[in-house]
Amino acid sequence: MPSSTVTVPLSPLTAERLRSRCEPELFSFETTAELEPLDGFMGQDRALEAVEFGTAIERSGFNLFVMGASGTGRHTAIEAYLNRLAGSRPAPDDWVYVNDFELAQRPRALRLPTGRAIALRDGMTTVIEDLLGSLPGVFESDEYRRRRRAIDEEFEEAQEEAFEGLRKEAAERDVALLRTPMGFALAPMRDGQVVKPEAFNAWPEGERTAAQAAISELQDSLRIVLERIPRLDKKRREQLRELNREFAAVAVDHALEDLRSAFADLPDVVPFIDSVRADLVENAGMLLPSGGEEEPQQKRADAPELRRYKVNVIVSNGHASTGAPVVREDNPTLPNLVGRIEHLQQMGALVTDFLLIKAGALHRSNGGYLLLDARRILTQPLAWEALKRALRNGRIVIESLAEHLSLLSTVSLEPEAIPFSAKVVLFGDRMVYHLLCQFDPEFQEIFKVAVDFDEEVTRSEASAQHYARLISGLVEREALLPFDRNGVARLLEHASRLAEDAERFSVRLGPIADLAREADHWARAESASTITDRHVVRAEQAAIRRLDRLRDKSREATLRNILLVDTEGTRVGQVNGLSVISLGRIAFGRPSRITARVRLGSGKLVDIERETELGGPLHSKGVLILSGLLTARYARDWPVSLAASLVFEQSYGGVDGDSASTAELCALLSAIAELPLRQDLAITGSVNQHGEVQAIGGVNEKIEGFFELCAARGLSGTQGVIIPQANVQHLMLREEVVEACAAGRFAVYAAEHLDQVMELMTGRLAGERGEDGLFPPDSVNRLVEDRLIAMARRRLEFGKQGERNSGGSAS
């Protein structure tokens, strides 16, 4: 019989492999105060290249979508980069809204060179104030009064002339022209005196008839005269208006002279000034004092009727020294994005005008950069569609959410659209990006540049030095105490812990910054001048302490035997599996008992978690894989004739992931071969159909979870955890675990194959097939195969016996 290949036995990992330390000697500085701060990108070459490309290309649709996990410093790095870039670009034009004197419901938008919008607004205010002071003097001048008096006298003379002719004609015919409170009247007259009605009735009939005929004819003449009077008055008013225009034009032109000269180079502003002049000349009376002649009241420049001449500055870049705007809108509602039209309540009604138009983020960022959060804008009604329209059409149209939803029934404005040209930078996670790519056909046409931020960088001496400079920048921005080299080294170890990889640093700077702030707090509490590793460790422990109530409750339930987990002895078909529970900002390992039971059957492997709908798809996949491994490895020529069940004992919530498949297979093989397994060991790792143990996540938390339980019961020196060999590079265990392993009171084993795990768990060789196709006698694999063959034969015997019994009954 050929000798079998002996599997290399597992040995505990050395303490050096359980935590990759960052040596303080790596740094030449004493404290971070000596370092030049590093702001922006670290280890993000791919993202930096994308940002440089997206900001450099001046083509439509090449806006940026920045994706990555929160806390990676995306916002800070991108905003800092854009601020530096914007400083080298020219400031964009100013924009104002002004009244359209022909159609007030459609305010006009004017573009002005940088900084000149304020000058136009102030210039118009000065014009109105000057006219309020100068116009009353113009209309009170001697020349104006003389010419107005001449017009009035001309009217009065023409009117008197018309009535005088009628009066003479009436006198010749013994008829009097009388002015009464009701107007003009004609009455008979004798001897120069008006005849009273009773005397007139005593006249002979012939005289009365002649008098009435004369009065009738004169009434026609009176009507002609009275019809002529309004025409004369209309001529008088027209002459007065022309006089007012003539005198107002002199004052208005004088008031507008400086403004017209200051903006003569702007072809868009000159027509506006001309329209203002025409309206002021036509309506100069609005600027005159109101009230009676005895106590006239001087009008103010902010009078409601004078609002039409003001200038509404929407965007002014004159206050900025140089550079394009970088606008970050944290609340991208529709009004905050495209602007809004406000309303005032007057006499129970809502009124508005062009001065109540307010700018949005699109206006403020026009010609520069706009930073938005993808989730926030997607959850705001109509905001996402409005942004896409602005980018697609290159125009900013002010829209009202209330009007879209028919919630506002009042007269509003339709401001002229403003051209839009800016780089929009959208921040979101990868899921949002891919969902938009799949479900919004316009998204990829508008956001063509993806900026993908990595969550970790390779751990090296160079990256450690860069990280130290990042910490120096954080210290400077936050006004923290400086870190000494030991404190920096400890922070970098924490960064590796966050990355769950001893060969990587996490660049999720949010948690690192929080830890640095907490360490600063403890250092100041001790009146220390620098932050050391001791303060960082205390901050780590305090952060865990605040959130570990559920972890303590879970461990307490196990110590009180409410949750059954053995940490000593041996059991058949029973093994300790490890899972990770993540709750917000804390994750901890939880040992669980996994059991397997077998009996004669048809080859069905029952996953109780899946049958009860508590197992997720990945867990079910792991169970199916181990079922395939069992069949292919041990029952190549025989049908599998067992019925087996697997379960996570006392699991009352969902179970997912395949990290327990190695432990489940060990429990199943133990139950088949009736070999007891060690209970002082816990197992984690997935297994493939060739029996290779594969990497899993959360390895540090899983090891620490079983260690804490064993430590609470008392470390025996034989306890430990078996992990995949591929996970050794991820180990960043807490100090107490490393110290226990270094002292031989706990152990961590790394396995590459299932056979190594079974040898350690059973104390028996696993065995490999020899040239005869058989496993070595008394090996684990031989016992498993022999039991499966025996069960297959037993099932075959039952089948034959059933056929004989069936045949006997038939005869």
Automatic annotation (TrEMBL):
Catalytic activity: Hydrolysis of proteins in presence of ATP
Keyword terms: Hydrolase, Protease, Serine protease
Active site residues per record: 659, 702
Broad EC category: hydrolase
Keyword Phosphoprotein assigned: no
EC number of the protein: 3.4.21.53
InterPro entries: AAA_32, Lon-like_helical, Lon_proteolytic, Lon_Prtase, LonB_AAA-LID, P-loop_NTPase, Ribosomal_Su5_D2-typ_SF, Ribsml_uS5_D2-typ_fold_subgr
Protein name: endopeptidase La
Location of the Lon proteolytic domain: 569-764
Superkingdom assignment: Bacteria
UniProt source species: Aquibaculum arenosum
Pfam families: AAA_32 (PF13654), Lon_C (PF05362), LonB_AAA-LID (PF20436), LonC_helical (PF20437)
Regions crossing the membrane: none
Family named by the database record: Belongs to the peptidase S16 family.
